[in-house]
């Protein structure tokens, strides 16, 4: 039995899970302890965040200074696993290994990898391609080494690794061939989420191990992307060279005519300001003028707030278009899948998306859809395509891949 600490460090949230994993990491289990800070949760105090700590059915909240540096926040969360009211460890020595979500692995990484100084340098270099993510992921790695010591092995699980199976035509931009030679290609992201969801869907609909199973998975959270998956292989995805590409997101623009960006730069927009706009002041938030949170925007849209309604309409239009492009890459569809915060919790989003594909014989069970049951096929009995909600579990996937990598290294 191995105690695996998983750290999913993001710019807006920090999530930790502790897993007790036996000899077969393919069998999913719930964490025995969890801790999380989510800076977007409504109703937080002005000067601090309330971190959520969970151990079994017990829960508590602990204050974490809002202006504290990220390493300090992470130290507070990690220490609470052995020094808090819900502590379940005797000390850091009880942790056997740590798994980290790292967003961009470039062409270098196709699987979970043991962290070394050389690996950290590569993650740092690739931070230019994922500026909201890789630098924060790296802070998490360093924070764990500081608090746990250098002897506990750490593993990086890369979001891009799942998409290394993309066909050459799907990963290549129609620019000069020199771009290909320089590695300026479509990498794709959210791979940890997609890998977990595609396996879970196969179990739910009774097609485990079926390499002909065609799924389109909609990962809809703070970042949003789609993947076309045949069997266990990604054959197309909406995000590209960076996590900015693809469908509209909560604060990110998604795909934009490059000519528009050239126009803005020629007319005085600063490069850094443009990057800030595309990453943090666009998408649902930019259009609505509200926080990029569907829990806030959808009620406003229902109350006929013009900007909120436009934001939702654009989001759904781009989502439908993305599904259409993934469908073209597959040529067939067995399951349409919704996962992560928006995908799992917003019936109106799922309903409006599915409505556009009724010509395929795809039909929702509206009663099931309204209740948003996790890990459930919510398609009508006569639907030609299964429609599945999957409760996202990136942390479990990170834990499982880290254990597999650790075992293979010791073999």
Provide an overview of this structure.
Helix 1 crosses helix 3, helix 10 (294-302) packs across helix 11 (306-330) and helix 11 packs across helix 13 (347-355). This protein is of the alpha/beta class. The strands form two sheets. It has an eight-stranded mixed beta sheet, sandwiched between helices. A six-stranded mixed beta sheet has the order 11-10-9-12-14-13, sandwiched between helices. The mean pLDDT is 94. It has two domains: 2-163, Nucleotidyltransferase, domain 5 (2-Layer Sandwich), CATH 3.30.420; 209-390, ATPase, nucleotide binding domain (Nucleotidyltransferase, domain 5, 2-Layer Sandwich). The protein has helices spanning 70-83, 117-125, 134-148, 168-171, 177-181, 191-204, 258-266, 271-280, 283-288, 294-302, 306-330, 340-345, 347-355, 366-371, 394-410; strands at residues 2-9, 13-21, 33-38, 48-55, 58-65, 97-102, 113-114, 154-158, 214-220, 224-230, 233-237, 335-339, 376-377, 386-390. The protein is built from 15 helices and 14 strands.
């Amino acid at each position: 039995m191995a105690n695996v600490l998983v750290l999913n460090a993001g710019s807006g949230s920090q999530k930790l899970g502790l897993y007790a994993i036996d000899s077969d990491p393919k069998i999913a289990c719930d964490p025995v302890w969890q801790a999380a800070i989510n800076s977007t949760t409504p109703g937080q105090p002005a000067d601090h965040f309330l971190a959520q700590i969970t151990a079994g059915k017990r829960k508590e909240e602990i204050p974490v200074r809002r202006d504290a540096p990220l390493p300090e926040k992470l130290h507070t969360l990690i220490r609470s696993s052995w020094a808090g009211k819900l502590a379940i460890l005797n000390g850091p020595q009880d942790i056997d290994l740590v798994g980290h979500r790292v967003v961009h692995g470039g062409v270098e990484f196709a699987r979970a990898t043991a962290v070394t100084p050389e690996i950290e340098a590569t993650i740092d270099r690739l931070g230019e391609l994922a500026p909201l993510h890789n630098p924060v992921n790296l802070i998490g790695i360093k924070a764990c080494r500081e608090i746990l010591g250098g002897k506990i092995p750490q593993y990086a699980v890369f979001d891009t690794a799942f998409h290394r199976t993309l066909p050459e035509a799907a990963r290549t931009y129609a620019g000069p061939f020199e771009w290909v030679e320089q590695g300026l290609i479509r990498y794709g992201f959210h791979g940890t989420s997609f890998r977990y969801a595609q396996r879970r869907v196969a179990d739910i609909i009774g097609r485990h191990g079926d390499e002909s199973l065609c799924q389109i998975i909609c990962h809809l959270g703070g970042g949003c992307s789609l993947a076309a998956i045949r069997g266990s292989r990604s054959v197309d995805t909406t995000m590209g060279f960076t996590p900015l590409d693809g469908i509209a997101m909560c604060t990110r623009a998604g795909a934009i005519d490059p000519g528009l960006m050239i126009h803005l730069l020629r007319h005085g927009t600063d490069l850094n300001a443009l990057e800030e706009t595309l990453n943090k002041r666009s998408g649902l938030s930019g259009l609505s003028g509200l926080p990029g949170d569907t829990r806030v925007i959808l009620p406003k849209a229902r109350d006929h707030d013009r900007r909120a309604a436009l934001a939702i309409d654009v989001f759904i239009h781009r989502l439908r278009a993305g599904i259409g492009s993934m469908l073209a890459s597959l040529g067939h569809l067995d399951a349409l899948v919704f996962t992560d915060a928006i995908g799992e919790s917003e019936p109106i989003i799922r309903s409006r998306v599915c409505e556009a594909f009724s010509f395929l014989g795809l039909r929702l069970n509206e009663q099931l859809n309204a209740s948003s049951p996790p890990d459930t096929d919510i398609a009508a009995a006569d639907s030609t395509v299964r429609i599945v909600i999957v409760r996202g579990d990136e942390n479990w996937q990170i834990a499982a891949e880290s254990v597999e990598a650790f075992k293979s290294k010791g073999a």
